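#structure-requests
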Amino acid sequence: MKKYIHHIITFSFLFFSFSLMAESFIVNSQNTFDDALSAASAGDSILWEAGLFSNIEMDIEKSNLVIMAEELGETKFTGASKVDISGSYITFQGFQFIDGNIGTGHVINTSGSYNHFTQLNIKDYTSYKYFIIREECQYNRVTYCNFEHRVNTADQNILSILVDDTNPGYHKIQYCSFKNFDGGGNDEGVEPIRIGLSTQGEFASRSIVEFCYFTQCNGDGEIISNKARQNVFRYNTFENNPVAELVLRHGDEAVLYGNFFLNGMGGVRVREGQHHVIFNNYFSGLEKRSIILQNDDSDPLDDINIAFNTFINSAEINLGGSGNDKPENVVFSNNIFTNPIDDLFDNPTGTEDWIGNISNGSSGISFPSGVTVTNPELEINSEGFYELSSTSPAIDAAQTGYPNLPIYPEMDIDNQLVYDLVRQLRPLDPNLKDIGCSEFPHNTPVRPIATEENTGPSYLWDNQGVFLRINLEGLGAVSLDLPLAQYALGTEVTLTALSSENYFFTEWSQDLTGTTNPTTIIMDGHKEVTAHFSIDPTGTNNLQFEKETLLKISPNPTNEKLDLSFSLKSKARIEAELFNNQGQKVKTLFNQFFSSGNHSIVEEVQNLPSGIYYLYFKKQTEGLNAVEVQVLKIVIP
């Protein structure tokens, strides 16, 4: 067995960490792996040589290890190979499991916490589940993995996340692809993802599925089966799934936003539960239904919020009116419904609430107030997707009065609709937001963020380089030290804005404030990384940030007084405004000139209701047109 010392460098988006003087073991068999695992200490790594290995069992009880392929994708396991990880803080990376048969065993089974599974490919296996995350563990991440074509079509799902009755899991499934599962839909059990069980529906999982791609998932009628509370499904693409859809089963308070549902049977089936939120989604080419709200006596629907979506060229929305357990408190707000295959709606309860919607085409029902029948004037962009034209009546036309979007502990949810479905910034003021899923003008074109080409392991792509595409349309001069180009994984790329400009920098799911300092991206596995600069959510253009700390607030949380402290290099007008979690201004704290130096101001907040608030702190230096903006979140318990 070969053994040597080296530095381990693990890249992730915008961050990297390394373990100094960690020991690495090179292995190429069951015996050498077992020996290495026995000898390894926290911080060490075990690297598998390239090759095809059969009947390998990795039973990993230790923690704080890196176990990976020496070359991504070149270590392949088959036969009865499988993995069981009960340790925590494990990085498991770069392997393929192909053409194997473990009967009723699981390919990967983990009961440990804080583990990261990445760059894995599981395909053409006979197994019980491809991947199971047990209920006793928390904070596991599964990224850039491909799950494809299980040989057997028995009643077992592919990726299963179980849920504990006391501690939420907080697991994340990111940038993964789920493809080509055989079957005829119905209740055949081969769901690509299931979170929870029917018996766990009352437990909070707080897991996130984001930036994933699903296609030809025919093994069950449910692409994702949600059977636990407070899960988030965002920025995914469901494309060409002829017999399946995303289904909300047992478990309340699911949140769906930023998803594309394209050219399949359906979009979302809401079978059971209360307090579900579906917003900022794009539905197109769906042949059976866009959304169905079921009339089910097992757990009747209540408080369903469907907002800021666009439905186009699709079958109807079934409102669940037939039966004895009609959905209650269903609100449609600021959606676009247009150009249906037949009718826009079917099976109404007659109790739906409608706020600020636009409808065009055969409605199928009698609309009350809250729906404007007019052409939304959408146009097809260069990517083949519909977005608002410059004359659309949906622009700046959203109406308030819709239900609040949720906040769950430790969950980063866009509950203020700061972004549209492609993460372009919307105005903070609810009345200035556009109706539908996208915001005009389209500095970022409407198109799926997750595609077959930028999800799953990088080594499955024909071209393993990573492309960086810069979009600066309509945003003025920004100086970049690089052109559109191709880079190898792990390459560090730097973007620099001119000193006289400041924009929010957006790259997939991360938002950074670009300053005069360079912004660095580490190319972490996308085939194409789209970077663009956009204005801040207050709508202020031509922002300028000085290299100084502006505002500090304390205490936070607070329910009595708020101490605001800041320093100025020169005289400036300072405006401080407080907004509630619905984007409504509740108080102007002050708007006046301050001299240079240090300042501390105490503001009373004891009369404000409990909740989340946002303090917008704006500075305009005397004699300059540039405005500096800082946004801080405040909690009033």
